[in-house]
Amino acid sequence: MNRLRRFDSKVSLDAFPSLGKTCPMLIENLQIYIERVDSHRNMARFYALELDRDLFGNTLLRRKWGRIGTRGREKLAAFDEEQAAIALFLKLLRQKRRRGYRARKRAA
Protein backbone atom coordinates (compact mmCIF):
# COMPACT_ATOMS: atom_id res chain seq x y z
CA MET A 1 0.00 0.00 0.00
CA ASN A 2 1.03 3.53 -0.58
CA ARG A 3 1.77 5.13 2.78
CA LEU A 4 1.25 8.76 1.79
CA ARG A 5 -2.26 9.86 2.80
CA ARG A 6 -2.73 12.05 -0.21
CA PHE A 7 -2.15 9.12 -2.56
CA ASP A 8 -3.20 6.19 -0.40
CA SER A 9 -5.64 4.01 -2.28
CA LYS A 10 -6.28 1.70 0.68
CA VAL A 11 -5.94 -1.23 -1.70
CA SER A 12 -3.07 -3.66 -1.43
CA LEU A 13 -1.68 -5.12 -4.62
CA ASP A 14 -1.16 -8.37 -2.73
CA ALA A 15 -4.92 -8.89 -2.66
CA PHE A 16 -5.08 -9.36 -6.43
CA PRO A 17 -4.37 -12.70 -8.09
CA SER A 18 -1.07 -13.25 -9.82
CA LEU A 19 -0.51 -11.04 -12.84
CA GLY A 20 1.39 -13.82 -14.64
CA LYS A 21 -0.02 -16.69 -16.64
CA THR A 22 -2.67 -18.76 -14.92
CA CYS A 23 -1.33 -22.02 -16.35
CA PRO A 24 1.92 -23.33 -14.89
CA MET A 25 4.69 -24.09 -17.34
CA LEU A 26 4.54 -27.64 -18.65
CA ILE A 27 8.26 -27.93 -19.21
CA GLU A 28 10.51 -26.01 -16.83
CA ASN A 29 13.85 -24.92 -18.31
CA LEU A 30 14.26 -27.62 -20.97
CA GLN A 31 17.68 -27.64 -22.68
CA ILE A 32 19.01 -29.73 -25.56
CA TYR A 33 22.52 -29.65 -27.01
CA ILE A 34 23.31 -31.54 -30.24
CA GLU A 35 26.33 -31.68 -32.54
CA ARG A 36 27.13 -32.55 -36.12
CA VAL A 37 30.71 -33.64 -36.79
CA ASP A 38 32.06 -34.80 -40.15
CA SER A 39 35.87 -34.85 -40.38
CA HIS A 40 35.82 -35.50 -44.15
CA ARG A 41 33.97 -32.23 -44.73
CA ASN A 42 35.79 -30.34 -41.92
CA MET A 43 32.45 -29.84 -40.21
CA ALA A 44 32.05 -29.48 -36.45
CA ARG A 45 28.83 -27.68 -35.54
CA PHE A 46 26.63 -27.39 -32.50
CA TYR A 47 23.01 -26.42 -31.98
CA ALA A 48 21.44 -25.71 -28.60
CA LEU A 49 17.76 -25.15 -27.78
CA GLU A 50 16.40 -23.92 -24.46
CA LEU A 51 12.84 -23.31 -23.25
CA ASP A 52 12.40 -21.05 -20.24
CA ARG A 53 10.16 -18.33 -18.85
CA ASP A 54 10.94 -14.62 -18.50
CA LEU A 55 9.96 -12.34 -15.62
CA PHE A 56 6.69 -11.40 -17.32
CA GLY A 57 5.45 -14.97 -17.71
CA ASN A 58 6.20 -15.28 -21.43
CA THR A 59 7.75 -18.47 -22.73
CA LEU A 60 11.18 -17.96 -24.28
CA LEU A 61 12.87 -20.12 -26.89
CA ARG A 62 16.62 -19.51 -27.08
CA ARG A 63 18.50 -20.97 -30.05
CA LYS A 64 22.28 -21.01 -30.17
CA TRP A 65 24.36 -22.41 -33.02
CA GLY A 66 27.83 -22.27 -34.53
CA ARG A 67 31.13 -24.04 -34.92
CA ILE A 68 32.21 -26.15 -31.95
CA GLY A 69 34.73 -24.22 -29.87
CA THR A 70 33.33 -20.80 -30.79
CA ARG A 71 30.78 -18.61 -29.10
CA GLY A 72 28.36 -19.02 -31.99
CA ARG A 73 25.24 -17.02 -32.75
CA GLU A 74 22.07 -16.71 -30.73
CA LYS A 75 18.41 -15.95 -31.39
CA LEU A 76 15.69 -15.41 -28.80
CA ALA A 77 11.95 -15.69 -29.45
CA ALA A 78 9.19 -14.84 -26.95
CA PHE A 79 5.76 -16.48 -27.05
CA ASP A 80 2.55 -15.63 -25.21
CA GLU A 81 1.41 -19.24 -25.44
CA GLU A 82 3.61 -22.05 -24.22
CA GLN A 83 2.22 -24.50 -26.77
CA ALA A 84 3.53 -22.40 -29.68
CA ALA A 85 7.03 -22.34 -28.16
CA ILE A 86 7.00 -26.10 -27.59
CA ALA A 87 5.78 -26.72 -31.15
CA LEU A 88 8.63 -24.63 -32.61
CA PHE A 89 11.13 -26.31 -30.25
CA LEU A 90 10.10 -29.77 -31.49
CA LYS A 91 10.01 -28.67 -35.15
CA LEU A 92 13.56 -27.29 -34.97
CA LEU A 93 14.79 -30.39 -33.16
CA ARG A 94 13.29 -32.68 -35.84
CA GLN A 95 14.89 -30.58 -38.62
CA LYS A 96 18.32 -30.76 -37.02
CA ARG A 97 18.04 -34.49 -36.36
CA ARG A 98 17.20 -35.03 -40.05
CA ARG A 99 20.32 -33.07 -41.01
CA GLY A 100 22.54 -35.34 -38.93
CA TYR A 101 22.80 -33.59 -35.57
CA ARG A 102 23.13 -36.03 -32.67
CA ALA A 103 23.72 -35.87 -28.93
CA ARG A 104 27.40 -35.72 -28.05
CA LYS A 105 28.95 -39.11 -27.31
CA ARG A 106 30.38 -39.40 -23.81
CA ALA A 107 34.05 -40.14 -23.40
CA ALA A 108 34.79 -43.60 -21.99
TrEMBL record:
Q: Name one Pfam family in it.
A: WGR
Segments forming domain WGR = 29-108
InterPro entries given in the database record: WGR_dom_sf, WGR_domain, YehF/YfeS-like_WGR
Name the Gene3D superfamilies on file.
Answer: WGR domain
Annotated keywords: Plasmid
* Key word Lipoprotein present: no
- The lineage's top-level taxon is Bacteria
* UniProt protein name: WGR domain-containing protein
* Species for this entry: Peteryoungia desertarenae
